[in-house]
Specification:
This protein has helices at 4-11, 21-30, 86-90, 111-120, 122-158, and strands at residues 32-36, 41-43, 51-57, 60-65, 71-77, 82-83, 97-100, 104-110. It is an alpha+beta fold and 169 residues long. It has a 4-stranded antiparallel β-sheet with strand order 1-8-3-6. Strands 2-7-4-5 form a 4-stranded antiparallel β-sheet, with no helix packed on it.
Length: 169
């Protein structure tokens, strides 16, 4: 169960934007605060996904391994950031690894917690899913920009343009 201070903090997190105090209190009855030591892996790519995490304090790293076995850091997350929210929408295995870069405090919200919101207040559930969709869209736009920048920088270095056509584009 979350404290009132933690619930006040969640009000400022984009995924929970515009949810009523009553709905946040409902989430607070089942969500959990978890302390994570630096270096501990929270999620591994391919794991079953059944919760999202909100960073309260500290720093998390999102990373994947390339074909060559080297790690590629995709994101560094700090207080107020969310990770694992895609699993609440697409019900797919974890798409990346997440570990604590330093001692961190997080709140975990599970599928079951979100299902309680759906049963109690379907309108708030819909709002929350839309908030999650916005977060995913923002992240996808950032990744598009990063990919475009990497592609053009590689073409500057190699002298060739990386041109992979996308069907239907």
């Amino acid at each position: 169960m979350l404290s009132n201070d933690e619930l006040d903090y969640l009000k400022k997190v984009s995924v929970f934007a515009a949810l009523s105090s009553e709905v946040l209190a409902l989430i607070g009855t089942c969500a959990k605060r978890v302390e994570i030591e630096a270096g501990k892996v929270l999620f591994s790519e391919g794991d079953l996904a059944n919760e999202m995490v909100v960073v309260l304090e500290g720093c998390l790293e999102v990373y994947k391994r390339g074909r060559n076995g080297l790690e590629a850091r995709l994101a560094v997350l700090g207080p107020g950031d969310v990770v694992g929210e895609m699993s609440l929408v697409d019900i797919q295995p974890r798409s990346a690894n997440v570990r604590a870069a330093e001692d961190s405090s997080v709140v975990t919200v599970s599928h079951a917690d979100i299902a309680k919101v759906y049963r109690e207040d379907p309108e708030s559930y819909t709002l929350m899913v839309l908030n999650i969709a916005r977060e995913i869209s923002i992240r996808l736009r950032r990744m598009d920009d990063m990919l475009a920048n990497v592609s053009t920088e590689l073409s500057d270095v190699t002298g060739t343009l990386l041109d992979r056509r996308i069907k239907g584009a």
